[in-house]
Amino acid sequence: MKKIFLILSVLFSTLVLSNELSWVDKQVDAIKPPRIGMKVSNIKNLKDPFIFLEKNRTDELLISKSSQPKAEIKQNSKTVNKQKIKTVSKVLVLNVIMNNSAMISGEWYKLGDRVNGFEISEINSNSVLLHKQQKKLLLSTKSNTNKLKFHHK
After folding, report:
1. Predicted pLDDT at 47
2. Which of 64, 72, 82, 122 is the most buried (most CB within 10 A)?
């Protein structure tokens, strides 16, 4: 009886986990085709992207971090220094869309998953639609800045 229960539990767990593995397989298959990159000669002609800071400059950065604004609170004629506490709600940023999955704020989500109380209702090639009761939120990969220009060949 124990052997049958053990065999059934192993079969059930593989059945449940196979759905997650098939999702990973789809993602891998989507990025498998070879992509054409830059020529090696063009890469060698590029400028080094790393910036090396001077020793004195890093000391200045440490000093500026330690001088954060503080609020003073008076309690019974005593002054107590307290750091300001900021309440920041999590900003949702659409990073990547691949197949029917989207990376939002660094985490992968699928259709129907919940993000900050919003449910993902639609994933397009360049946007994700989230809804929460009557509210709708559209996350897009398109940018409103004109600083970035992409040329298609």
Report:
1. 86
2. 122
